[in-house]
UniProtKB/TrEMBL annotation:
Cofactor: Zn(2+); Mn(2+); Fe(2+)
Note on cofactor: Binds 1 zinc ion per subunit. Binds 1 Mn(2+) or Fe(2+) ion per subunit.
Keywords associated with the record: Iron, Metal-binding, Zinc
Binding site for Fe cation: H90, D92
InterPro entries: FUR, WH-like_DNA-bd_sf, WH_DNA-bd_sf
BP term (GO), one: regulation of secondary metabolite biosynthetic process
Binding site for Zn(2+): C99, C102, C135, C138
Top-rank taxon, per record: Bacteria
GO MF term set: DNA-binding transcription factor activity; transcription cis-regulatory region binding; zinc ion binding
Protein name as annotated: Transcriptional repressor
Amino acid sequence: MQEEIIENILKSANLSVTGSRKKILNLFLASNGALSHADIEQEADEKMDRITIYRTLQAFVQKGIIHIIPTTDNSIRYALCKDECSEGHHHDQHVHFVCNECHTTYCLEQINVPHVKLPSGFTQDQTEVIVNGLCANCHA
């Protein structure tokens, strides 16, 4: 079943179904939160090099399969997009939560990013809200 879902996602994004893409997409589907390049590299087998992972992540971002989450330490994490995203058009306007204890990054889809009224002459491309604190698992 999972294999079929992965193949459908790749085919609907007009991407070739390769072993590397299937493995990386499976990691995202199995993850509770966002993943970094290092997380994926750690979980991937030796046959998948850093360049393959990087190119796969870039293709997934471009095709609207995953979105980028900036972090306070200027690293990048990635999370699965929802159905509203498509090639070149990300619509993941939700809050991201980073746990200070376990360092997991969560997409809080139920909380929308508030509208920011900008001064005249300014044009908004994207607004990101990152909340830091303790997640439910670490708070308990």
